[in-house]
Structures
1.
Amino acid sequence: MEYPLTQMEFEQMFSNEQLCMEYLIGLRWREGYVCMECGNHQYWLLSRRRISCRKCKSQMSITQGTIFEQSNKPLSLWYRTIWLMVSQKSGVSAVSVQNIMGFGSYQTAWTWLHKLRKLTVSPDRERLKGKVEIDETLLGGYKEGKRGRGAEGKNLIAIAVEIFEKGTGRVRLNIIPNAKRSSLKRFIENNIEAGSEIITDGWKSYLGIEGYTHTVVEKESSHGEENLLPNAHRVASLLKRWLLGTHQNYITGNKTQNYLDEFVFRYNRRKSASRGLLFQRVMEQAVNHKPIKYSEIINKNQISGKN
Ligand SMILES: [Zn+2]
């Protein structure tokens, strides 16, 4: 499927609502539209995002069952917001989206971005493998206070990062309730392929997790903690810089996982040559993901070791 490579191409591809609908149809029916009633391939586009079979005249909404279903806003606005989110190196804040899209309310922009963040996790993504460094960090401070207990109002984040001969591979970030063995074990099993080599510091909760080769790096008196697990530490720093830079740290407790998911999406595709491909990934998820209710964004408690 074709995707835009540049801002210019994006503008041309999605210059009106009809083009946006055609693109959505292409994503929904990869082999071309097929009428559910009669199997015919020819269609008419009607108003209000409806499609009609040319033969039997049966109709359906092309956004039904997608994350666009409940939105009255034009698809072109959604596409532009997705494009903004993926084409900017550091993403985009709700305030920027509100200003650029001309939304009357901040809440609309904020809600859209949270919905889109939920699309950054592919349901069939593969677990990390090979050598994987694991550590935890508190958002709001690096390992201050007693380990294993989250500080008040802070999120404890588990970090896993693949280590290559040169540089790093993919990462995973999850909020965990505490740094006990059960929490870390669940994070590791959910995110790292069995048989991989996990590299951690000497924290007791990591000991005795089965199914992995375990390398413990010990603290050396001459080095600070930062040198112990440099890759995980670097990811933690990048995450915090990103939250501070793009979002002014304006994140609230149970939404944090959404931000982590967006960060992981960006990090794992940092070498991708084309932002357009990222646009297409999010669009594919948008079409395949069931509608997300506002109440799901507001209430969902996402603090768990699950993905
Ligand atoms: Zn038909």
2.
Amino acid sequence: MRTNILHIGAGELTYEIRNIVNVGNKLQSLGLQVNWENIGDPVAKGEIIPSWMKEIVADAVYEDETYGYSPTKGVLETRQFIAAETNAMGGVQIDPEDIIFFNGLGDAISKIFGFLKRTARVIVPTPSYTTHSSAEAAHAGDRPVTYILDPNHNWYPDLEDIENHVKFNPAVAGILIINPDNPTGAVYPEQILRDIVEIAAKNDLFIICDEVYQNMVYNGTKSVPLATVIGDKVPAISMRGVSKEMPWPGSRCGWIEVFNGHRDPMFEKYIDSILNAKMLEVCSTTLPQIVLPRIINHPEYQDYLEERIRRYERFSNIAYDILKDVKGILVNRTNGAFYMSAAFESGLLTDKQTLPIKNDDVRTTVEAMVAAPDISPDKRFVYYLLGATGVCVVPLSSFATSLQGFRITLLERDETEFINIFETIAAAIEQYITSA
Ligand SMILES: Cc1ncc(COP(=O)(O)O)c(C=O)c1O
């Protein structure tokens, strides 16, 4: 190219959750049977969408308005429905104009960070759901600014770390919270959320809170929506969607709720810039917005969701019970969403450890992949695990963290298969770390 066409943040856009699929597909084509435990799509893992839900969608297909554009912010009746639900929590009060729909939260995330001034930073958790950390880093053309989720304390945010970053880095303008969290499955206690709001209030920051898993908590844990703790001073954005809960990730439908938007003129302008960006695209997908209230109001919806949550609870505890005593890794019981992260003890992984791989083609391919420069120790483990057992997980280091480990989903529906997968991983870890 006669002139450099690369955006300053081009190198920051990595998404290992999808990259690992390419590796899995390659090994599958060589004869490996793969168990896909890497991607958070309940439908891909065999979730049966109930007939009553399909009927609602099918009926909507016969309504011509579902084929049209919707208002830029989204279908008014749906925004009225969501605003009423949020207001019924008794915390911050919003109206439909405070809600903007997007083509999935992925779209919302890219606009929220894309329209932030390049030098203004949002501090993100480490480990972090990469769509956030990569989009934030790409907007700045620099490494993400991160605060620690502490694996020795249930993966809760390290408040002192947040405070120190805020104190010593004047570029920090906002704090990102993901609650319940991906990739850790942690659900934060009310006090931690209140403390983060307090830090934001004291330092004139805004908050972004990804609450896409808000209604998916278990093990007796209480979900504490940001709306109930934000108060009336700190400007904030809550992000929600239908991908996980309904579950309908293919609908590409998510939305933001803006809290205390009028409290700060600069924040208000920032939200306007996000809305204007959406306006250039006209609007987001119409059909899922139209059916959203019908599905949530359906008499069977709560039972359906409850049944799934009970399954995640049960499987989360099975997974924890299998992995908790495995030497060399640290895991926490998960209380929400459908992911579990395991971290290896520091320095435990080497570049000599291996697992036996029977299929010659698979083995030579794995050996070639792990010989590439800059392969992180956990990626090496993940590739060997995949090649030797067929279990596909995501290296933890791809979630904007220097911790070495892996993230696995709890979405496998067959209990015997689920137990088998986790016992296989437990045995593979022991074999791998003692292999050299
Ligand atoms: C925390 C979190 N936010 C957002 C998303 C993406 O949601 P959407 O399908 O609405 O783009 C995911 C998907 O895994 C997620 O885990």
